[in-house]
Write a structure and sequence with these properties.
8-stranded parallel β-barrel; single chain; 5-stranded antiparallel beta sheet; rod-shaped; 13 helices; alpha/beta
């Protein structure tokens, strides 16, 4: 066999494969299929469990001694003699391990040797028979120290495909555990079932990738004293990015449902926004989420004797005297509850509007279908609908079906607290275009059933990185959120440092 190259084990940095140092002069050695044969005298055999050494690695060596090696010893000396494994350290030989000569003569001597963590070049070993002050040289062995290297090539890096790696460990160490890891919440965590390197150092690893962009790497576990080794991290990407809907016009950065929120969402480039419409006492459509005015305005200060402060008990003129911004922050003092027309004018066709009709079954809102019909026929809402920039939604499915039947040109979205059943989807697909389920109670299979029926999905309400990852994992077409800017962070997670 040809000469073996000697490599120096480089330190393993975080996430960086070990790199071989420049080659040292080759060292000749006679190698058998079972291990490395001693290059010294032929009266004994010394073999190692590996053909080379990795810094820090512990290997097993077997030694044999033949009777002719110790024929000059007396019977008494043979009983007392020891077979000693020694390592060359500078100009001296130092003992590593020892066993009885009797065991060696029977061919059952075994030694354990651990390379130093900073070992490099060539490790020189030998066996000697020692009895008293006498020492008989038996066999010598040279082991090159090499750098452990790990490479792993992913077949695909899109979130919709399984993540498969062809991994290779050099030099080969059969049985060493290899695993795929994912970087989440600041730590690396194993993903899927680990694999093992075969005799050639190869392994095929496959896991289901997370449904959102994430960093992955392959790790070789700590093995026989050799430190763990990792590949450079790689990141997956989405093959389809969902749309964003600013919830309550963008309630995370401005007081909800106000013109200030609308302006900020439009300026940020959000393609869609969602607001809630209700009627005042005098049948004017205004934008408000709650039935009561108390949470988001100063109604209790201006009208202290009008509890429980329900919108239906106030005229538009009274509603427009209220401060709907100070509760969020002093910078928004004086913001008003806007009318539907004011919101449409502020959007000015620059974003799609998802208009949720709140509680159409309440007596205070029972005329909302008539008001909306008027707006669609003669008002600004009709122009928005004609431009295909309007979707109507509601939790009241019976009311929504009636509206959809009366206005087939206006797409409708069915709001639901849980993922719909197959029977519900079969019924809704006859008159609805979209399903709006709670993200926390939806699965990828649920939304696949939605798509199979020709419907699209918008999940709500997604307000944290973890919730965004969940929304991406279930495969939503759109994400309803108070914080649209968070999606960009989830789509482009920072590289682990």
């Amino acid at each position: 066999m040809g000469a073996l190259s000697v490599l120096v084990l480089a330190p393993v940095a975080y996430g960086v494969p070990a790199v071989a140092a420049p080659q040292a002069p080759p060292v000749a050695a006679s190698v058998s299929a079972e291990g490395i044969q001693a290059a010294g005298a032929g009266s004994a055999l010394l073999r190692a469990s590996q053909r080379n050494l990795i810094a820090g690695e512990t290997i097993t060596l077997t030694a044999k001694a033949k009777p002719k090696t110790v024929k000059r010893l007396t019977a008494k000396e043979r009983r007392k003699a020891r077979l000693v494994l020694q390592r060359r350290a500078g100009s001296r030989w130092r003992a590593v391990d020892t066993t009885s000569l009797k065991r060696a003569l029977k061919g059952k001597a075994a030694f354990s040797y651990s390379a130093r963590a900073n070992a490099s070049g060539t490790v020189r070993l030998r066996t000697v028979v020692k009895v008293g002050k006498r020492q008989l040289k038996v066999a010598r062995l040279r082991l090159p120290v090499v750098a452990q290297q790990l490479s792993a090539t992913p077949a695909s890096l899109v979130t919709s495909a399984p993540l498969t790696y062809a991994a290779s460990l050099t030099p080969a160490r059969a049985g060493r555990e290899l695993s795929v890891q994912i970087y989440q919440d600041g730590v690396w965590a194993p993903l899927g079932t680990p694999g093992s390197a075969d005799r050639a150092g190869a392994a095929s690893l496959g896991v289901d990738a997370a449904g959102y962009p994430a960093w992955y790497r392959v790790s070789a576990a700590e093995w026989n004293g050799v430190p763990a080794l990792t590949t450079e991290p790689v990141r997956t990407t989405l093959d389809k990015v969902p749309g964003l809907v600013a919830h309550r016009a963008g309630a995370g950065s401005a007081p909800e449902q106000t013109l200030a929120a609308v302006r900020q969402s439009v300026a940020s480039g959000v393609a869609s926004m969602e607001v809630d419409v209700q009627l005042t006492k005098d049948r004017e459509p205004v934008i408000l989420h709650d039935t009561s005015l108390a949470r988001t305005t100063n109604v209790e200060e201006l009208f202290p004797d009008r509890a429980p402060y329900n919108l239906a008990d106030f005229t538009l003129a009274e509603v427009q005297t209220l401060d709907a911004g100070s509760w969020f922050g002093p910078a928004f003092a004086g913001e008003r509850i806007p009318t539907l027309d004011e919101v449409l004018a502020e959007i000015a066709g620059r974003a799609h509007l998802v208009l949720e009709v709140k509680d159409p079954g309440l007596p205070s809102n029972e005329q909302v279908d008539e008001v909306l019909a008027e707006e669609l026929a003669t008002g600004s809402l009709g122009a928005v609908a004609a431009a295909r920039k309007l979707t109507l939604s509601s939790f009241d499915h019976a009311w929504l079906q009636v509206f959809a039947t009366a206005h087939p040109d206006v797409p409708v979205g069915v709001l639901n607290f849980v993922a719909p059943s197959a029977a519900q989807l079969d019924a809704w697909q006859t008159w609805a275009e979209e399903i709006h389920p709670n993200v926390a109670l939806s699965t990828r299979a649920d939304l696949a059933e939605v798509r199979r029926r020709g419907l699209t999905s918008s999940v709500w309400t997604v307000n944290s990185p973890a919730q965004f990852r969940a929304a991406l994992t279930v495969g939503a077409d759109r994400i309803i959120t108070d914080f649209p800017a968070l999606l960009a962070e989830v789509l482009d997670p920072p590289r682990p440092s």
